[in-house]
Design brief:
By secondary structure, the protein is mostly helical. It is 75% helix and 0% strand.
């Protein structure tokens, strides 16, 4: 009886360790993807700032298209 319980606990532990390893791998991949997306976002933000004109435009100064 005691040996069955120990065997059952060992099996459960093996499954738990496998699940933990799988979850760790998933978290690692997701963090790598988040890091890549943050890098791309910074690059896009920098590109957008560089493409803006030096002077700020005021929409009130522009003539609407229907005039």
């Amino acid at each position: 009886m005691m040996e069955e319980r120990i065997t059952e606990l060992e099996v459960k532990l093996a499954f738990a360790e496998d699940l933990l390893e799988t979850l760790n791998h998933t978290v690692y991949r997701q963090q790598a993807q988040i890091d890549q997306l943050q890098h791309e976002l910074r690059a896009l933000r920098q590109q957008m700032l560089q493409s803006q004109p030096a002077e700020q435009r005021n929409l009130l100064d522009e003539i609407p298209p229907h005039y």
